[in-house]
Structures are given as structure tokens and as C-alpha cells.
Amino acid sequence: MYLEKIDSPADVRAIPASELGALADEIRGALIDKLSVHGGHVGPNLGMVETTIALHRVFDSPSDKLVFDVSHQTYVHKMLTGRAFAFTDPARYDEVSGYSEPGESVHDHFVIGHTSTSVSLACGLAKGRDLVGDTYNVVAVIGDGSLSGGEAFEGLDWAAELGTNLIIIVNDNEMSIAENHGGLYASLAELRATNGESPNNYFRALGLDYRYIEDGNDEQTVEAALSKVRGIDHPVVVHIHTEKGHGYAPAVQNKERFHWDGWFDKATGESLLPTDGEPDYSELTYQVLSARMEADPRIVAISSATPIIMGFTPARRAAAGKQFVDVGIAEEHAVALASGIAAAGGTPVYGFYGTFIQRGFDQLMQDLCVNGNPAVLLSFADSARNMNDVTHLGIFDIPEFNAIPGLTYLAPTCKQEYLAMLEWAIDYREGPVAIRVPGAGVVSREGVALGKAGAAATEGAGPAWPLTPEIVSRGADVAILGLGCAFPIAQEAAAALEAEGVGVTLVNPRVASGLDETFVEELAGSHKAIVTVEDGQLEGGFGEKVARQAGPYGIRVRCLGIPRGYYDRYDPAELMASCSLTPEGVAAAAKELLA
Amino acid sequence: MYLEKIDSPADVRAIPASELGALADEIRGALIDKLSVHGGHVGPNLGMVETTIALHRVFDSPSDKLVFDVSHQTYVHKMLTGRAFAFTDPARYDEVSGYSEPGESVHDHFVIGHTSTSVSLACGLAKGRDLVGDTYNVVAVIGDGSLSGGEAFEGLDWAAELGTNLIIIVNDNEMSIAENHGGLYASLAELRATNGESPNNYFRALGLDYRYIEDGNDEQTVEAALSKVRGIDHPVVVHIHTEKGHGYAPAVQNKERFHWDGWFDKATGESLLPTDGEPDYSELTYQVLSARMEADPRIVAISSATPIIMGFTPARRAAAGKQFVDVGIAEEHAVALASGIAAAGGTPVYGFYGTFIQRGFDQLMQDLCVNGNPAVLLSFADSARNMNDVTHLGIFDIPEFNAIPGLTYLAPTCKQEYLAMLEWAIDYREGPVAIRVPGAGVVSREGVALGKAGAAATEGAGPAWPLTPEIVSRGADVAILGLGCAFPIAQEAAAALEAEGVGVTLVNPRVASGLDETFVEELAGSHKAIVTVEDGQLEGGFGEKVARQAGPYGIRVRCLGIPRGYYDRYDPAELMASCSLTPEGVAAAAKELLA
């Protein structure tokens, strides 16, 4: 038993080389024990065991600075820097985050969750070190698909200009979340095949010194190679070939599924996640897309390294052929590609996690929306009730998209509305449309008005469904606007208020990007108060637009949402309650305005 | 005289090869005639004359699609596609934009102003072509420094996967706006030195076929090379060596100044721009920075290819040595670099045009602000009264920055306040601070309260100067909040209202990222109405926050700003007036609320 005795990297250095294999085995056992019941990034960490041990034996952290990217491969680093308890003691599994976190340890230097950042951040540390007059080593670890991100390129390209110590470890496990994409990965394969000798060398072409290590899962080999670059006086790339999932057969055999897994049988690797048969939004999306793609060869689904979010399993990707494109981790390119496809007469449908599309903000603004090209964007996992790591929050999508002229942002309240909006968006040719795929779970609203089928039931100003709000019920006291997946909260609040005799107009805005001026004027003229309800950030959100539009009428308005801030590993129910984002909270806010 | 007879590329193809030199001379003459009195991108277009002629002789636009990047090198393309009048007839100089513009011609396919986009957009056209079943050539032109942008890399990396026709012209003029930066450019130099034979080849390392043309200013050479790739069945890079400013000695000798120039003596190249001795904000910024940098070696100024915006001329950059960094066109890297420098104890000051920092939105959110590192960000040219090309608008900065938790965004109203805020921000260690450098020209406010010097004169809630608003005058009827460079408008309106007997509280908010709740509550409780005034986009802007905060009090609020939209080559005074962003407009809005 080694882990319980490791309080700091000094303890790792004190272990005789002959016992490091046993340490690696123990680390793998702890990883599999924890992740099989707790969930987390399995394959990326199993592959990095030996390299991480070597890093801590060669470098003197925290004097020397190790910057991990993507930081979901820091579990082993955490075990070796005083945080093994969070992997060996089930009662303490939640005491560390899944990413690098300076709040936990002096061995972590940045909160990092999005990919492709380590080289640039490490360049900054190295430049700062030089300005301040320090002399420590700065080590960036990058890999697991992140090289395809533009920021990683920008960092590597600039690194050559630094001219002082910087060690860039490229963890080449031949994978992204799914398989790798892009010409670069073909040339990494060539480097692997030639033991690093191929003249076709991306890193050298960027002006960087370069070393290759074939057996990245042999600790002594890696340690020897790293020892040679310690204290180096210029930037160098150390390209290390590792195996994603190394040492655990199920993860080696099924690299994509084990990139992140939630609950599995240790012995067989079989998933133990419940499959209750109710399709989630990924599956629902795939069903619509596959039918439409089959009928129309001009429709193409685009992913940036997260194909499963749209239900595209490996088999389905293969079946879709040229109508499915995974660009790898490259959101900027994905947005521009979609714009170009639309300009050429194709129909691109680009699905992504809302947190990652921040990378494409300028491309949405310029490459796509200035041009008005009809691309369909599907933003997943947006809601304060979805991912709760500080680097993966689902509360910034509305401020981001709503800053962009020309982008219609739809917020369906339920499954039926989502599916109809998706069909509608695929057919819409007037400009780009984004849909906020409900991020708080699948909700059903039988009988909701859905365009062609239910247009007559739809009231409100503006053009045809879905570009006009749905007035669900009418009352004279307060108008409550429940946006997207926050609608059920507004609906319950309305019912409670009605039961108390308060007249409520319940509105499903449908369009997150803003309401027609005359619609708000009408609401302001026929009520005593307005309450807006959204499960995203208040600042820049939907409610603020309503407050501005209602402002001149002097009606009382209360915007409910999440106050601007970085929230980490919070309890979603608690956070929602603290922001009055509960039926009781909404009802209380309404009554306060009416008092 | 050829130009007046060229209505379309067919006319270019009809010119005998022996006369193309005369055509090129005529094009250069027209460029210099126009740009010397009108302003525009001089060097980039002079260098592209022969390549553009060759493109239109080899390819059949608009069937074949030419996508230019950065599209400020499209002047010659415009001359050859029916728009020569805008370069030969002074009365029609303003009839074309400075960038590619589908609204002008079927030969332009995208509105493009930001760099590094053409490869991705062209990938999209090519993919769309394949889906639709067309067979035309798609040609991307990239160069003039744009290869350092992450989006260009993402596009090149993916291009290899396309597998069908795509021709990428790399216009290598050895320059960005200023000199090139990054290791990539060293390897381009190696390719130039070896006539394209060096094994160190960035494009091949990304899996792309590659050709080199040494004499990119010889039309026949370029034409012959392009003829060989026309109809090619896979992606290919054609690396063309051109000379920025070719054919005009002053532009060749002073490549940086002639990247864009406003008014110059054709014979000597001497600038005729008035120098009235009043320093602008670039010069003012440099004066503060150079003094602080001299006193503290930990301070470093960072630019992403626009060093002049902070006053860093070539001589000053040389003098600053390691305390000045130009990362090239690489905003993502610049933000992460700044975060790393701050984490290592340095003080980074990163200055940029507000329109370009959109590229760094995710890096601001994640690499910098989640980490709370004390970097200073200076955002220039933000205002509806600054750049008025649709791709370079200065109205999106407040929505962008205000979406980001943890970022303090200051909006000085005048020179005195800006300089004091810059000094303050350099010393501030609590987190990242951005400053909206006034984008509507230098304004002086004698006696404005400036922290240490004037703290006693400052009222309002919250912490010390400048994090608290300035109450300039007190009145009982309406509170007018004039943000940053819109303050003078609010001030004049207040004076006019006071003269009419309306009691005005005039507020300089100082902080664009939002006011203290209690401050807004106090305003709402002591006035009949509130008017906010900003010269940026309303949606996501400063005013909306005030409207939301004031909402529960039922006070009338009117937010004045620019409605969300893409505005192109507008008259700033007209646009401002149409949005009530004049003293009269603000006063009228206030009176309407009070009526």
C-alpha cells in the first residue's frame, strides 16, 4: 500500500524504482474502484498513470509548475499531491473536483475545464517567471484530442518565441473523446510509426525542439526522457505515446465509452447505468435528424468531438457517411463550416454543449450571423440544473447568444415543442436558428400548440409559430413568463396563485432572444406586474430584455434567474431555491410585486 | 486603359498576356490614387495585384468560388468583378465596402472582416457543394498574418479530411499588420529560402498537398501554377510569395504604416494626416505604460497584432524589450498568456480593438476570469461613433464583457478618469479589470473626482474609487446615467433639463459591469424616472441591468442605446440621433417618462 503514505511528490520520489509498478497498479485499482461507482474520466487517467508518476519524480512541484490540459487527466496528479484520500476513501470521493483546482492544492495552478489551454497558460507562467526573475521549470501537459483546438495551436506557435524554459508534454493516446479528426492526427500517426523520425513534424514546423517517447506507459522510460529536458533553456515538445485506458481491458477495448463513464461493473466493464427506455434529448434529436437526413442528402449533422450529444453512436456515424461530420475539438471551425455549407445550399445542423460554444462566439457573430446563413444550432446541457462544475456551467448561453444580432434563439418548454422546433428550424431558410435543448430533463406537455397543428391556439404578436409567444392562460394581475425548461416552475406557480385568487397570465415566450415590443407593451398595459423566470444567468439574460422593454410603462417587474457568478459543484435544487426559482419562490415574488 | 472596360472576369481573361503588365500598372495607379486621398489597406492590395489577376484568369468566378481572407485584400478582386468604378471615379469611391460583400456582387460569398476565416468558410462551401452534388472549384485565399489565428489552423487541420476539391492560396507577404510573430513564420521563411523544398512544412504536417510559387508578383508564373491545380480532386495549398506594397516604393519601405493608411503624398508616401499635437488615447496609454514599465520590470504590454493601438511604434517596441509582447493575430492565446503571466506574479496589460476580442470570449470567461487573475485589459474603439464597417462595430463590448462573472469593466468618461483608472488597474491585485477606453474621441473633464485626489468628492454605494458611481449633481425628478463616452450627452441633456426646471441627478456610473443593488434602490426611491445612456448595444448592455434592478420598484425607466443589429457604413451622428443618443433625445426621453 503506497497511496496512503503519499502526502506530497517527495514521497513519490522516495519510492524505489523497482516498486513503481506496484504503485501504478495500486493507482489503477483505486481509479477503477472509484470511477465504477462514482463516475468520471476513466480512459484518460488510466493512460496517464506512468507519465504522471514520472513527472512528479523528475520535476519538483510546486516549485516547478505542472499545467494539465485537458485537466480531466489530473486524477493521478491529485493522488500524488496529497489528495489520494479522495480516490481511496469512498466517504471522501467528492472532496476533489474532476479538474485542476488551485483551491485544493498548491500543486494546481489554474481552474481548467475547457480544452486546449495548457500551452498558452504555461507560456504565461514562463513569461511571468522570466519577468519576475525566477528560474523554475514550467511544464504543460496537453493531449487527449486537445491539439485540434485553435488555442492550442496559437500557444504552440507562440511558444517558439519565448526562448526560455518551457516543456510541453504531448500525451498522444490516439484519441479525442471519440476518434481523432484532422490532418494533424495523421501526421502524429506517422511520427509514432517512425519513432519520431518522420520529417513531417507539426511541432518542428512551428519552430519547436522535439523528442519522442514510444512507450509512454513505461515509467522508467518516461522518467529518463523527462530527466533530460529538466532545466532546458528553450521550449521543447516531448511527444509521449500512451494508451487510453491502459491496464484495464474494457477501457482499452471501448475507448469512446470509457472516456467518461458513470457506473460500471469492474469485472466486465459493463455499464450499470439504468436504461429505463425513455429516450433522452440526444436520442430524440437523432431520431428526427436521421429521418430528415435520409430524405434529404443536403442535410449534414456536425459535431465538435461530442457526437453522442446528438445520439450519433459510432455505428450511426458510419451509417450517416458524408452526412455526418465530427471536426474534433474545433468549435471555431465548426461554426464557420456550418456557415459555408449553408451558403452552398446545404443544411447544417451543429449540436454542441452550450459551455463549449463560447469558443465560437466571434464565429457565430461574424462568420455565421452577419452573413445570415441558415444553419441550425442545437445547444445542449444549458440550465442551472445540468453540469455543475464551475468550468462547465450551463447558465451562460442566453447572454452569449442574445448578444448576437440576427440569431433567433428558441427555448422549447417540452419534448413536443422541441421536436417541432427542430423540424421547423431544418426547414427555415431566413437565417440562423439556435435551439436551447431543454437542459433540465425531458418534460412532456400534451396538447401544447405546435405550429401547423396548433397555430389557431396560439396567441400573441409577431410572425408565425414558433416566433411568437404562447399565452397559456389569461389573468388580470400578474404576467409570468417562464422560459424554456423553467416553464414548468412558472406553470406551477401560476396554478398556486390562481388557487389563491390571483389572476395570472402565463406565457411561454418560445423565443429566448427577445419579445416583440408591442407584446411587452400589451402585457404592461393589462397587468399590475410582470415576473420573468429563466434557469440561466440574469445578466444579459431573457428577463433583462423584458425589464428594459417594460421600463417606460412603470409596471413592477421582477426578473428571476441566476445572479452572475461562478458556481462550483453546487446542489442544483439549493441554488435554484436560493434564487426563488421554485414554484413557491415565483409565487412569492409575484405576490410581493402585487402587494 | 483597361479597367473601364472590365465588367467581369471574362474581360480579364480576354486580355492578351502581353498586356497584363499594363493592366497591373493601371490597377496599382488606381489603388494609389484612391487610397492616398480616401484611406484604406494599401500594402496588402498592392502585393496581391498579379495573384488576383491570375485567379480570375484561371478560375471562372462566380461559378468557381473565391473566398478572400483577410478580405481587406479584395480591392483588386473588386476591380476585376464589375466594381472598378469605385476605384477610378472619385465620386464613387464610397460605393464599395473595404471588405468582401455579397450585397455588392455575386463574386463575393461572405461578409468577412475578422481574419483567419477563409479556410473554414471555404471548407463549408466545398462540403456544401459535395452534398448538393455540384462540381465547381472552391478557392480560399489566406495570408497577411492570418495564419496565426486559431481558426485558420482549425480549418487547415480539418481540410485534409474533406478529400475533395479545395484550393488554399497562402499569400505569404512576410508580414502581419506589423511584423509576423510565431514559430510558424520562421518555417514559412525556411520554405521561401528553399523554394518550398524544406521538409519542415507546416501544411504537409497537417496532411495537405503543397505547391510553392516564389515569384508571386509575376502574373504568368502564378497563372501557370494555378492552372495546374484547377479542378484538382483533393485539398491543396499553393504557397505564394508576394511582396507587401509591391510596386510602390514607400509602401515597400514602410510596410507597417502602409498596411492601412489614411491620406498621403503619392510621390513621396509622406503622411498628410494632420498632427495637431493633441495626444490620442493610444499615445496617452503609451505614456502611462512606458513610465510604469520602466519603474517595474514585471509589467508587460501585450498586443495581438495591433501594437499601435497602445502607442507602441517599432522603436518603442524595441525599447520595451521583453516587456512588450506581440503575439500576432491570436487573441485566444493573448488572453491565456495574460492569465499565466498574472499567475506567475507579473502584471500583464493587454490592449486590443473591442471588435477583435470576441475571439477570446471563452478565454476571458475560463482561462482568465474563473481564475481571478489580475490582468489589465484595455478595449479600444468601442463606441457607435468609432469604426462603422459591419464587421468592425464597437457596440458589442459591453454585452460581451458583462456576460462574464468576475470581470470588472470600467467606463471612464474622460481623459483624466481614463488615465487614473489605468494607473489604478495596474496596481489592482484582486482580479481582472477591463477598461473601455473612450471610443468617441478625447474629452477632458477638469476637476473630475479621481480616487486618492478626489475621493471625498465621490458619493454613492460600494467600495472605493473607481468601483463606485460618481454623482455629479442632484435633483428630484429624473436620474440620468451617462456611461463612459456617452456621459457628455447625458451631461448636456441634464443641463438643458435643469434650465427648464426639471430636477436631474446626473450619474457617471464608472463601472459598466453593473451597479450596486442598493445604489439603484436609492435612485429608484428618490426619483420619478431613470434614463440610462450608452453608445453600445442595448441587448445585454449596461442599461438593461439598471432596468432589471429598478424593476421591482415600479419606477419608469428608459434605456437608450443602439438596438441589436448589424449596421454597415452608417453615419454615426444619424445613427445616434435615431436612437435618441443626443442631448435633445435624452432630454425628450426624460420628459416623456415624467409626463
Blueprint (SSEs and pairs):
Two copies of one chain form a homodimer.
Chain A: H1 9-13, H2 20-38, H3 43-47, H4 49-58, E1 65-68, H5 75-83, H6 85-88, H7 118-132, E2 138-143, H8 150-162, E3 166-172, H9 183-193, H10 202-205, E4 209-213, H11 219-229, E5 235-241, H12 249-253, H13 281-295, E6 299-303, H14 314-320, E7 324-326, H15 331-343, E8 347-353, H16 361-370, E9 376-382, H17 397-402, E10 408-410, H18 415-427, E11 433-438, E12 470-473, E13 478-482, H19 487-499, E14 504-508, H20 517-526, E15 529-537, H21 542-550, E16 556-562, H22 572-578, H23 583-594
Parallel strand pairs in A: 1-2, 2-3, 3-5, 4-5, 6-7, 6-8, 8-9, 9-11, 10-11, 13-14, 13-15, 15-16
Antiparallel strand pairs in A: 12-14
Family (chains A, B): Belongs to the transketolase family. DXPS subfamily.
Keywords (chains A, B): Isoprene biosynthesis, Magnesium, Metal-binding, Thiamine biosynthesis, Thiamine pyrophosphate, Transferase
Enzyme class (chains A, B): transferase
Protein described:
The structure is a homodimer of 595-residue chains. With 595 residues, the first copy, chain A, is an alpha/beta fold. Chain A folds into three domains: 3-256, Rossmann fold, CATH 3.40.50.970; 281-438, Rossmann fold; 465-594, 3-Layer(aba) Sandwich (Rossmann fold), CATH 3.40.50. Helix content of chain A is 38%, strand content 15%. Chain A has helices spanning 9-13, 20-38, 43-47, 49-58, 75-83, 85-88, 118-132, 150-162, 183-193, 202-205, 219-229, 249-253, 281-295, 314-320, 331-343, 361-370, 397-402, 415-427, 487-499, 517-526, 542-550, 572-578, 583-594; strands spanning 65-68, 138-143, 166-172, 209-213, 235-241, 299-303, 324-326, 347-353, 376-382, 408-410, 433-438, 470-473, 478-482, 504-508, 529-537, 556-562. Chain A has a six-stranded parallel β-sheet, sandwiched between helices. In chain A, helix 21 links the parallel strand 15 (529-537) and strand 16. In chain A, helix 13 (281-295) runs parallel beside helix 18 (415-427). The longest helix of chain A has 19 residues, at 20-38. The model of chain A is unreliable at 453-462 (pLDDT under 50). At the A-B interface, helix 7, helix 8, helix 9, helix 10 and helix 15 of A face helix 7, helix 8, helix 9, helix 10 and helix 15 of B. Chains A, B: Residues 279-444 form the Transketolase-like pyrimidine-binding domain.
